[in-house]
């Protein structure tokens, strides 16, 4: 029975979450530890050891560990990556600085441009040229490559190199040869070829993605190498996998070569957990709400799958301002992420005299004031404690005692006195601001997709998600929300239920009626073979792998394209009418009409390779339960006063989450406490526990 347990690990900005699942032993265990920002692997190793101790397992009993991290995102935002050099085609040295030649704010005279990752003096030109059709106009100057890379290594002390030549998405031979020359001279130097990292049309985005990959590659290699070594020292002999930004599981080797594909690794796990829960409960229209210690993430999930997109902006100078960040060509789960977490800091703005919350966070060090770890500025978690929503003696199951007195004093002196209001009113203001911020972001995200939030169910998780979910659902005029058992670590659950999956892309431009279908089929077959190899390395069964082809298309003359499903992996002119209809359907969904008399062209061809994810019986999560009751009154364990907006202080029945069995029913106001989170239920709501031990809340 050895080697059957799996662990999902989600490294967040404040907490690192764990879920262990062993289908043979019918065992599910959870854990949560403060993140160790200086070395995230410390919290991972400590958490794994704790889970093994609690379950009586040994490291040899672990089949695999699936891991996600915010390390790539944080590195780009904080600009703490490697010293990178760039080799590019002569005349195109400034592509990443010129960008699209657009301004993200037309009327700001002091516009701050997103800083490039590679300054101009480390961008060197190489004589070479391939045209748009793949023909060689100017052979690669190999001596120039040797001279340039030697200068970058010896004089600029670069730690990684990006190579991005013109039209390399169509013909990569010059990039491949240049990479081989660099490897001969400096075999230890990490090299990112744009034709491997992002083989898509558009020089700016492709070059930017290659540079970003090189920027984070040395750090991620060191981090993953250390994590593998530390796990091996424990006796772990299984496989270490990582979560990609698109929600698929990949092998560590893939993460080391293309770390930029992990930029939304952690948030994607939450979306996959919500998708699993939606499929389990039969919910077709869901908004996933994942609120942790640093950020809140909202994602649309329809038909048990999250929306995805194939580009992403990292490190925006201005939040929500499209065009103010670094453009990346990577597959990501389409979600909105804002600086609204339990650690978001509340303050009174000196200029306006108004209270503001976030996006700055107290993080894990020093954390909220109530943690007693040196925090001095009030946070959302501190406000929740003052409002009675958190039990100071049962935080993390009683492992971390909270200090309400210190919080009350800080809110009184730092906020309440400046606003001339009582401290509990100030705490209520913190909650209202953060809830309104999240509601506004969710409305905007759904409005851009033409969706009405009133028709959706809210699935809430994360350490702070269930605390704020009821008020968020009320602000969005939703009538139903669902909170899973183990909600505080549900993102880590997402790692265990996510399928081995990867997305590949190749650009080949042409009008539909003029395409060389043999060439297109060759591209699709090549991507399918590459994807299959990656999934086998990620642990997929050979017979379980499926492929889903698609293409990016547009009307001739349009500036940007839309994704279109393809009928099969082998295409001929006979499929042309069906492809056109799929394009019109996709076009109608986005723009409300179809222009059927205009010619269509394809730009890029995609293949999604995936294998089935694993199933987990969520009812087993409550491994710490001693009894289960269908009568909610038997699961009650006291009453606590909670301040609700518009209703004042109300006595709330507190329920033991682990004692609530399927069939239990009760009404709000109420609090449902578990080890990693607390669910706050407002007055008038009706609550039931379904067959999977989810809390189903019907709002009044």
CATH architecture descriptor name of the domain at 5-73 and 221-262:
2-Layer Sandwich
How much of the polypeptide forms β-strand, as a percent range?
Answer: 25-35%
- CATH first level of the domain at 5-73 and 221-262: Alpha Beta
| Largest sheet data | 9 strands, mixed
Q: Roughly how many Å is the radius of gyration?
A: 26 Å
- The whole-number mean of residue pLDDT values reads 90
| Tally of alpha and pi helices | 16
Helix fraction bin: 25-40%
> Which residues form runs of ≥5 with pLDDT under 50?
620-626
* Structural class designation: alpha+beta
Describe the structure.
- This is Hydantoinase/oxoprolinase family protein.
- Pfam families: Hydant_A_C, Hydant_A_N, Hydantoinase_A.
- It comes from Falsiroseomonas selenitidurans.
- This protein has about 700 residues and is an alpha+beta fold.
- About 30% of the residues lie in helices and about 25% in strands.
- The strands form 9 sheets. Strands 13, 14, 15, 20, 23, 24, 31, 34 and 35 form a 9-stranded mixed beta sheet that branches. A 6-stranded mixed beta sheet has the order 3-2-1-4-11-12, sandwiched between helices. The chain has a 4-stranded parallel beta sheet with strand order 6-5-9-10, with helices on both faces.
- Helix 12 crosses helix 13 (about 465-475).
- About 50% of the residues are buried.
Summarize, please:
The protein is built from 16 helices and 35 strands. By secondary structure, it is of the alpha+beta class. Among the domains are: 5-73 and 221-262, Nucleotidyltransferase, domain 5, CATH 3.30.420; 83-189, no CATH class; 344-432, no CATH class; 501-610, no CATH class.
């Amino acid at each position: 029975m050895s080697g059957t347990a799996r662990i999902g690990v989600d490294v967040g900005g404040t907490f690192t979450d764990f879920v262990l699942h062993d289908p043979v032993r019918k065992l599910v265990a959870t854990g949560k530890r403060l993140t160790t920002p200086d070395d995230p692997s410390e919290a991972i190793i400590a958490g794994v050891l704790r889970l093994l101790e609690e379950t009586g397992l040994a490291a040899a009993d672990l089949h695999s560990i699936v891991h996600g991290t915010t390390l790539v995102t944080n590195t780009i935002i904080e600009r703490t990556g490697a010293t990178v050099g760039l080799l590019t085609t002569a005349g195109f040295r400034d592509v990443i600085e010129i960008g699209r030649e657009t301004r993200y704010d037309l009327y700001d005279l002091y516009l701050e441009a997103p800083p490039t990752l590679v300054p101009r003096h480390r961008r060197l030109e190489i004589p070479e040229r391939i045209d748009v059709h793949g023909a060689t106009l100017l052979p690669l100057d190999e001596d120039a490559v040797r001279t340039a890379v030697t200068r970058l290594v010896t004089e600029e002390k670069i730690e990684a190199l990006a190579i991005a030549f013109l039209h390399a998405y169509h013909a990569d031979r010059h990039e491949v040869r240049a990479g081989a020359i660099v490897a001969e001279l400096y075999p230890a130097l990490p090299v990112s070829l744009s034709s491997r990292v992002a083989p898509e049309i558009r020089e700016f985005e492709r070059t930017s993605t290659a540079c970003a990959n090189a920027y984070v590659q040395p750090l991620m290699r060191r981090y993953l190498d250390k994590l593998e070594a530390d796990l091996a020292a424990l006796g772990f002999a299984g496989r270490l996998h990582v979560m990609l930004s698109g929600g698929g599981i990949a092998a560590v080797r893939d993460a080391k070569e293309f770390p930029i594909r992990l930029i939304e690794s952690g948030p994607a796990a939450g979306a996959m957990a919500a998708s699993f829960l939606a499929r389990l409960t039969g919910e077709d229209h869901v908004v996933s709400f994942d609120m942790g210690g640093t950020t809140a993430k909202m994602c649309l999930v329809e038909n048990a799958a999250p929306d995805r997109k194939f580009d992403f902006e990292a490190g925006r100078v201005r939040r929500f301002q499209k065009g103010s960040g670094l453009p990346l060509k990577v597959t990501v789960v389409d979600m909105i992420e804002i600086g609204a977490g339990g650690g978001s800091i509340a303050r009174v703005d000196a200029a306006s005299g108004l209270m503001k919350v976030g996006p700055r966070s107290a993080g894990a060090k020093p954390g909220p004031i109530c943690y007693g770890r040196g925090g001095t500025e009030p946070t959302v978690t501190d406000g929740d404690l003052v409002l009675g929503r958190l039990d100071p003696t049962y935080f993390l199951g009683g492992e971390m005692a909270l200090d309400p007195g210190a919080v009350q004093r800080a809110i009184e002196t730092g906020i309440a006195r400046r606003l001339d209001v009582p401290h509990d009113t100030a705490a209520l203001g913190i909650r209202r601001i953060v809830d309104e911020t999240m509601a506004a972001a969710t409305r905007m995200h759904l409005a851009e997709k033409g969706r009405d939030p009133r028709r959706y169910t809210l699935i809430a998780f994360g350490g702070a998600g269930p605390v704020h979910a009821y008020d968020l659902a009320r602000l969005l005029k939703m009538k139903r929300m669902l909170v899973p058992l183990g909600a505080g670590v549900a993102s880590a659950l997402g790692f265990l239920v996510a399928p081995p999956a990867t997305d590949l892309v190749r650009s080949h431009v042409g009008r539909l009626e003029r395409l060389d279908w043999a060439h297109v089929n060759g591209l699709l077959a090549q991507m399918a073979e590459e994807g299959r190899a990656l999934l086998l390395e990620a642990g997929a069964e050979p017979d379980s792998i499926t492929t889903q082809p698609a293409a990016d298309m547009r009307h001739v003359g349009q500036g940007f394209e839309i994704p279109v499903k393809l009928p099969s992996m082998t295409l001929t002119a006979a499929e042309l009418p069906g492809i056109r209809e799929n394009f019109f359907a996709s076009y109608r969904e986005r723009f409300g009409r179809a222009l059927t008399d205009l010619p269509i062209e394809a730009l890029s061809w995609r293949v999604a390779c995936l294998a089935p994810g694993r199933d987990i019986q969520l009812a087993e999560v409550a491994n710490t339960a001693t009894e289960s009751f269908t009568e909610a009154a038997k699961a009650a364990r006291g009453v606590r006063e909670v301040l609700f907006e518009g209703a004042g202080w109300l006595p709330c029945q507190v329920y033991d989450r682990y004692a609530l069995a399927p069939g239990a029913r009760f009404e709000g106001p109420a609090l449902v406490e578990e080890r990693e989170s607390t669910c706050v239920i407002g007055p008038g709501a009706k609550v039931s526990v379904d067959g999977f031990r989810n809390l189903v809340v019907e709002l009044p």
